[in-house]
Structure formats: structure tokens, C-alpha cells
């Protein structure tokens, strides 16, 4: 998924040179989308301030999405593709798929088990 927009070509207009402004345009568009998402949720929270009308737990999704946004952007695309590994003490490694799949499935199963354990039970039966 890293670099999936690398081959994307902006429409060719003589008045705009997209080559030099690609990072600026992408940053502004991402910032506007990020701001709009939070603005919508803040507006809903102000419009429906009581717990009965809007559960305050709904903010959890946005908080985790924001944390994920920063975590995803903390890693460069070169590190994801493996371009940054060169002549170091480890050098380049073989492209084994199984360990990566194991880590992914471990975290996916833990994530889904957490959701099922948290939301699949009813608190009425505790006692």
C-alpha cells in the first residue's frame, strides 16, 4: 500500500505545475479532511451535550483514528518498502512472508477477541 499514489498523475494544466506542489497539495487536502472529521464530531458533541442524547464513548473511535494517523505517518514509505536497508550490520534480509503474516494474524485475532470479549458479554448477568 505504501506509495500507491507514486504513479498517480495529476491532470495536466498549463497554469499549475503539480510536480513541485504535490506534497503541499496532499498536506492541505489531508489537513482539511482531518479538520472536517473532528469538526463534525465536535459539532455533534456541542449540539447533543447530554449523555442520553449522545454517548460520550462515541469519541473513542476518533481518538484511536487520530492516534493511528500519527502512528502510520511516523514510519517513512522507504522503511515500509525496505528501501532504507542497505549495507548495515544486518544488511538486506530475505523477503519471508510467514513471520509478517504471523504478526498480522496475531494482532488481528487479539483485536477481534478484545472486541468480542468487551461487547459480546452483557453486564446484566454479572452478579
> Would you list the SSEs in sequence order as H and E?
HHHH
Instruction: Estimate percent helicity.
Output: 55-70%
Tally of strands: 0
Would you tell me the overall average pLDDT?
76
Shape: flat
Residue stretches low in confidence (pLDDT < 50, at least 5 long) are none
How would you sum up the major sheet? none
Secondary structure tally, helices: 4
Radius of gyration: 22 Å
User: Which structural class fits the helix and strand makeup?
Assistant: mainly alpha
End-to-end Cα distance, whole Å, is 48 Å
Estimate the strand proportion: under 5%
Write the layout of secondary structure elements.
Elements: H1 18-47, H2 59-73, H3 77-81, H4 98-119
What features would you describe in this structure?
- This protein is mainly alpha-helical and 127 residues long.
- 57% of the residues lie in helices and 0% in strands.
- The chain has helices spanning 18-47, 59-73, 77-81, 98-119.
- The longest helix has 30 residues, at 18-47.
Q: Which key features would you list for this structure?
A:
127 residues, mainly alpha
Amino acid at each position: 500500500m505504501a506509495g500507491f499514489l507514486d504513479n498517480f498523475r495529476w491532470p495536466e494544466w498549463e497554469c499549475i505545475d503539480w510536480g513541485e506542489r504535490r506534497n503541499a497539495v496532499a498536506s492541505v487536502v489531508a489537513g482539511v479532511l482531518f479538520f472536517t472529521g473532528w469538526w463534525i464530531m465536535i459539532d455533534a458533541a456541542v449540539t447533543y451535550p447530554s449523555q442520553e442524547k449522545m454517548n460520550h464513548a462515541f469519541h473513542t473511535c476518533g481518538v484511536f483514528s487520530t492516534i493511528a494517523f500519527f502512528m502510520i505517518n511516523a514510519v517513512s514509505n522507504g522503511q515500509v518498502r525496505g528501501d532504507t536497508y542497505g549495507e548495515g550490520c544486518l544488511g538486506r534480509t530475505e523477503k519471508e512472508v510467514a513471520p509478517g503474516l504471523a504478526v498480522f494474524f496475531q494482532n488481528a485475532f487479539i483485536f477481534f477477541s478484545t472486541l468480542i470479549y468487551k461487547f459480546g458479554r452483557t453486564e446484566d448477568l454479572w452478579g
